[in-house]
């Protein structure tokens, strides 16, 4: 939520660099945007309501050369998305500016105190207290004089201010009175520093940095940094110097371009065969045959990681929670481990009672979701006396994110960064991670025979080609079919067993990018209530893959058809009975039911994408959403 950027260096191009950075961060919020720069001893602030292009137009007609500045793209929390609430926010003198990502929980008390000290507030935001708080402390700190452990009064004033803030935040601060300093701080919200040649950057996320540098340094919670044209110094909130070394990001700037696709979402749907291939190559032992001594899967976990394991609990949000539901099916049915899947936002305030020998898995594509991180942090400290320490595992495509600094073990899904706000390739990659984990556990716990394991692994290896086949053979057809639903108001998605979470995911994709009301339901539950919603205006999409519940799903689909619903089936190409049941087909290759979610989700992603595109909506940046949800 919200993206912040900062630049300090020798190029007089701060505005261009900030705007380019904000463009890469727009996926984090797009309610308003703004920049503040310092030139000729003055602070200049330009802000605009709405998407970034509004700000770009304003900056184009009023630009000053500057080598220091900060920028922000907003996802509104406190205060409407209006220009007066846009960041940067300034102190009363308008010489100091702040951008923030997060929420300051004690802003009301601070604002009252600061009003009594004569500060004037101009916005409804929580953030505005920060510039006033810093400005409030500065004169006293300057009067005290520089002490040995205060490299600069501005740094010290920001340090004292952040110590008074409660909540989760990442901030960047500049002042016209300190034209060679950019101060940044982090507490529970992401912030990465970038090291260039005589220039330094900060940003909420790495895509804003990689056009300039791949040498990056993520700040940790409770750290504050001072960036000058000659270097970077990092301190703790207590004022102690922290020694940290930048690392090199193994990324290519092309990864964050559309590469000829109309939208990032479509590009990312098309990346899925490659993502699955890469993930499998990374973790599967290519030569494995039944009878070999080692596991066919090498996830890089400690050798004793699975010892005495009795149950698993998964914490996640949104699409990642759906991946967790598929994970539960696999861990229970394949590896025989009782598993719960929890919304992280619920779990953190009402956790399951502690049970020994539990593995907690956090699933998150961004690696920054506040609720998921908080739930994992809580599990890391919840510990009953005499019991072994908690076992935590993260599943993510962002191994450089905050998640990896919170949990000791990570399965990197190798999906890379995802820009489209609606998750697609990262979901499929999370599923692959769960397949590999469940099969590795099944090998260790001997819940599958080596032959069964071999068959499933061979099935997994076929998936990239099968995904390619779906994309090649289906996209045009789905695009045409989608025309029929441009004015539809409600959709129902049905699935059972391992494909129930895919029904939820299909409904979520449609809701979030097309704004059509959609519900995912376990097909067998329809008759217990939701069937009352059905009539000729409500299409029903049913996922019917041969296996344990195939006939049942077809019967449930017939029940919907008897209520005049138009039936769309996600089903194998050669299933005669299914072909006769459904009015329209979204065919997928014939695969083992257990592996089918990796295929059945793709036509649903395409359907949601094309309906939204036909409706002329902003597919990559749907209203009210943000890619990285760093607030509660
Ligand atoms: C849906 C979507 C969201 C995220 C959710 C969790 O397409 O992207 O529902 O899945 O906000 O995000 P992560 O996975 O970053 O924790």
From TrEMBL:
Annotated catalytic residues: 2 (nucleophile), 627 (for fru-6p isomerization activity)
Superkingdom, natural source: Bacteria
Single GO biological process annotation from the record: amino sugar biosynthetic process
EC number: 2.6.1.16
Self-association state and partner proteins as the record states: Homodimer.
Described purpose of this protein according to its UniProt entry: Catalyzes the first step in hexosamine metabolism, converting fructose-6P into glucosamine-6P using glutamine as a nitrogen source.
Protein name in UniProt: Glutamine--fructose-6-phosphate aminotransferase [isomerizing]
Organism: Petrachloros mirabilis ULC683
Gene designation per UniProt: glmS
């Amino acid at each position: 939520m919200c993206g912040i950027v900062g630049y300090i260096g020798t190029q007089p191009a701060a505005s261009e660099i900030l705007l380019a950075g904000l463009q890469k961060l727009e996926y984090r919020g797009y309610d308003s945007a703004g920049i503040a720069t310092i030139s000729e001893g003055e602070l200049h602030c330009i802000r605009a309501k709405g998407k970034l292009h509004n700000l770009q137009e304003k900056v184009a007609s009023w630009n000053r050369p500057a080598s220091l500045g900060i920028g922000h793209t907003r996802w509104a929390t406190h205060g409407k998305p209006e220009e007066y609430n846009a960041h940067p926010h300034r102190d009363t003198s308008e010489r100091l500016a702040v951008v923030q990502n997060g929420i300051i929980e004690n802003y009301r008390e601070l604002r009252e105190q600061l009003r009594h000290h004569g500060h004037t507030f101009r916005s409804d935001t929580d953030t505005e207290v920060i510039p006033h708080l810093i400005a409030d402390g500065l004169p006293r700190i300057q009067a005290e004089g520089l002490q040995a452990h205060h490299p600069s009064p501005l740094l010290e004033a920001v340090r004292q201010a952040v110590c008074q803030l409660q909540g989760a935040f990442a901030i960047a601060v500049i002042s016209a009175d300190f034209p060679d300093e950019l101060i940044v701080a982090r507490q529970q919200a992401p912030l990465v520093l970038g090291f260039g040649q005589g220039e330094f950057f900060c940003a909420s996320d790495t895509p804003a940095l990689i056009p300039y540098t791949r040498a990056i340094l993520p700040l940790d919670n409770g750290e504050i940094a001072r960036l000058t044209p000659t270097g970077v110094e990092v301190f703790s909130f207590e004022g102690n110097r922290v020694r940290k070394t930048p690392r090199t990001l193994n990324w290519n700037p092309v990864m964050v371009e559309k590469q000829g696709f109309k939208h990032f979402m479509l590009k990312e749907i098309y990346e899925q065969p490659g993502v699955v291939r890469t993930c499998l190559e990374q973790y599967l032992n290519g030569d494995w045959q039944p009878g070999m001594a080692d596991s066919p899967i090498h996830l890089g976990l400690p050798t004793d990681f699975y010892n005495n394991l009795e149950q698993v609990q998964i914490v996640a949000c949104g699409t990642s929670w759906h991946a967790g539901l598929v994970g539960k099916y696999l861990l229970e049915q394949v590896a025989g481990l009782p598993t719960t899947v929890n919304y992280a936002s619920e779990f953190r305030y009402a956790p399951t009672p502690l049970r020994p020998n539990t593995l907690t898995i956090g699933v998150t594509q961004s690696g920054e979701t506040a609720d998921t991180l908080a739930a994992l942090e809580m599990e890391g400290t919840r510990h009953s006396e005499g019991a072994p320490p908690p076992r935590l595992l993260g599943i993510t495509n962002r191994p450089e994110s905050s998640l990896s600094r919170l949990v000791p073990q990570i399965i990197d899904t190798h999906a890379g960064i995802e820009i489209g706000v609606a998750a697609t390739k990262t979901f499929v990659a999370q599923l692959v991670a769960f397949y590999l984990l469940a099969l590795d556990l099944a090998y260790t716990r001997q819940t599958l025979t080596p032959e069964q394991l071999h068959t499933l692994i061979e099935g997994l290896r076929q998936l990239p080609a099968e995904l390619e086949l779906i994309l090649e053979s289906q996209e045009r057809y789905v695009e045409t079919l989608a025309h029929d639903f441009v004015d539809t108001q409600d959709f129902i998605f049905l699935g059972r067993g391992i494909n129930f979470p895919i029904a939820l995911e299909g409904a979520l994709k449609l809701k979030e990018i097309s704004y059509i009301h959609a519900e995912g339901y376990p097909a067998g539950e329809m008759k217990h209530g939701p069937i009352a919603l059905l009539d000729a205006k409500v299409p029903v999409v049913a996922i019917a893959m041969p296996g344990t519940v195939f006939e049942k799903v077809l019967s449930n689909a017939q029940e919907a058809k008897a209520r005049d619903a138009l039936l769309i089936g996600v089903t194998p190409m050669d299933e005669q009975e299914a072909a006769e049941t459904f009015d329209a087909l979204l065919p997928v290759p014939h695969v083992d039911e257990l592996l089918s979610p990796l295929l059945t989700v793709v036509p649903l992603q395409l359907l949601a994408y094309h309906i939204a595109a036909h409706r002329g909506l902003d597919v990559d940046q749907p209203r009210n959403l943000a890619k990285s949800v760093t607030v509660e």
